[in-house]
What we know:
The complex is a heterodimer. Chain A has no helices and eleven strands. By secondary structure, chain A is mainly β. Chain B is mainly β. Chain B contains no helices and eleven strands. The A-B interface holds A 33, 42-43, 45, 48, 56, 88, 90, 98-100, 102-108 and B 31-32, 34, 36, 42-46, 49, 88, 90, 92-98, 100-103.
Amino acid sequence: KAGVTQTPRYLIKTRGQQVTLSCSPISGHRSVSWYQQTPGQGLQFLFEYFSETQRNKGNFPGRFSGRQFSNSRSEMNVSTLELGDSALYLCASSEGPSSGNTIYFGEGSWLTVV
Amino acid sequence: QKEVEQNSGPLSVPEGAIASLNCTYSDRGSQSFFWYRQYSGKSPELIMSIYSNGDKEDGRFTAQLNKASQYVSLLIRDSQPSDSATYLCAVTGGSYIPTFGRGTSLIVHP
């Protein structure tokens, strides 16, 4: 069974631009969660989608948004990029809501904002 | 605020020794506990999950859970240099999303 797939793996953006990251969960998994990981803050939860509905949201500004499609694939968008948005963005999928299921991470998308 | 605490390390052990990684959590309602390993520049990969008090063994890895004391630990027997990584503890339960510790850096030296 294929794992969680994230695209693109690496990208460089300029301050003020926007970026869209994509995630395909493990087949059969209906929940997708997004995390931001930086050396200083560790793993921080962004949001979770289950059956196309946002189930939970972390403490991030409104510039960070996401959505989930009917096939469980998910995208996250960051608008008006700031230097501090440089991070590893991780997508994780689980069969059901992450509160009661094991989550599996994708390889991540490395975002550098210059 | 649910908290998961880990010693950041680094924890340095010689090859062949037992590495002991610890994690404490604040929420007594926590039900599920996970250990992830993250190599530098890579994403976290699941090593083990544990749900009940006691020990759970998987190869060289043993997870230990003590809900009364609110701690979970990971033992790595016969440590190898390839075990050198950051180990993340994650806790979840009830209706809250997984909360991750900041991770413990493990260095296994030959």
